[in-house]
Amino acid sequence: MNAPVDPQFAARIRDSFSRQKAMGLIGARLSLVEPGHVEVELPFRDDLTQQKGFVHGGILGMIADTACGYAAFSLMPAGCSLVTVEYKINILSPARGSLVARGTVIRPGRTLTVARAEVYARDGKHVASMQQTLMMLAGTPDTIE
Amino acid sequence: MNAPVDPQFAARIRDSFSRQKAMGLIGARLSLVEPGHVEVELPFRDDLTQQKGFVHGGILGMIADTACGYAAFSLMPAGCSLVTVEYKINILSPARGSLVARGTVIRPGRTLTVARAEVYARDGKHVASMQQTLMMLAGTPDTIE
Amino acid sequence: MNAPVDPQFAARIRDSFSRQKAMGLIGARLSLVEPGHVEVELPFRDDLTQQKGFVHGGILGMIADTACGYAAFSLMPAGCSLVTVEYKINILSPARGSLVARGTVIRPGRTLTVARAEVYARDGKHVASMQQTLMMLAGTPDTIE
Amino acid sequence: MNAPVDPQFAARIRDSFSRQKAMGLIGARLSLVEPGHVEVELPFRDDLTQQKGFVHGGILGMIADTACGYAAFSLMPAGCSLVTVEYKINILSPARGSLVARGTVIRPGRTLTVARAEVYARDGKHVASMQQTLMMLAGTPDTIE
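Predict the joint structure of the above. Result:
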């Protein structure tokens, strides 16, 4: 397991997540915060679906993106912020129920961090896999400037 | 320009988009439907943002995903549906205003189609670039089964 | 572990690999063939490097691509062939020595399979991570047509 | 067109390319160097192929990676070097002849640059599309350290 440099990392992440209004819009919740590993839960709602009644692929991307981002953020020092550089997601199965996205850092770095997220359904079905690159912005606040 | 095999492609796409409840949730609108090219507009709203007040990276993915998907769908025959296999998006600039995602097919295929989307801000700033793979499901309805 | 549908999968893969002339060109070897998991070794050579003396990023892609492809192929029936649809690779560390690429299927499918590969250096350093999509072509020979 | 900050960019790139031994191994040549745009040609050779006689997908990645990288490098100042952070490539058509990879910067940046490459066959067939992220390392030599 990775050692966090900021002992207050969990409180910092919970505070940051609570300011992500887009997470509130879709009803996502932070369900686990550990060093280098963060989970985001998404209860099913009808207004999250695409035309065939499955959870929209972009919604899968939203929770996986957020899980990766906070997994990366957990290993960064206080007083910085981070941006998503890019991500790639494979949608493995259509999903019509509640989901969890599990983000894990695979390579922490001073500037760039690489993380992955797996999205699972309640019944254990593997729904999506993401690989993501994030960049730390040292000395910038994680708030609206 | 690509030739659509279904002359009713635009009506078929507008109908399908209207059934994407996730697009309604975020307030996205279909602003252009041409053969192999579809645009999705997203007026800015405060509840689409992440912790720094920028439009959430996953929201950028949602509109780019949808623009690519319908660009691909426009070249497919009536009576089929399609699924997103995977996508990759680079976030080029943080965005705090209204956006448009422009999806274009770069390789139509019988089974797989490859498309790209560019996301721009109102002021012309290039916000994100996506490359996506989609799969046609012949003889399956584009509705809730 | 995944169950192979073709009990002769290992012989089929070793034969196929031996016909990959590009693997011969770079000196890559098939070092492990299991159901859903294949490893490719690459002894270091000076003619595999880029301008700074590190193994070329495209060479990392070659061995990871091949490891993913044969991991997917190991779970497919005899008498088919497969094509790489797309892949995404993050380069995590520059590498100047011998490498191994470990490919693993994360989602086998009738048409599409998703696999990942990790590239490691001899000293255990994590060099690269790939996520890949492959498509099975039923009833087509895995040979020059 | 982008303005290069180093007027000697073309000589700098030609020198760097000539030190890429992996490009020599596969017989690739730098055929065009402009600000933000670089082309790499690859004459067909039998030892570049996979088991079905097509140019190996990893070889497509090599020339596209190199074309993107030097397109990015053309806009960077003298005295720096760059590394490939990640790339994603879709293989659009199997190819059995000579190829050209055309790399273009879509977003130059102080730290990160995003580029794309298209790979074409001699007959104009579109063979592959890459989207790539590169990182500039300021004040580091583009040579073996």
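The first helix of chain A runs from residue 9 to 18.
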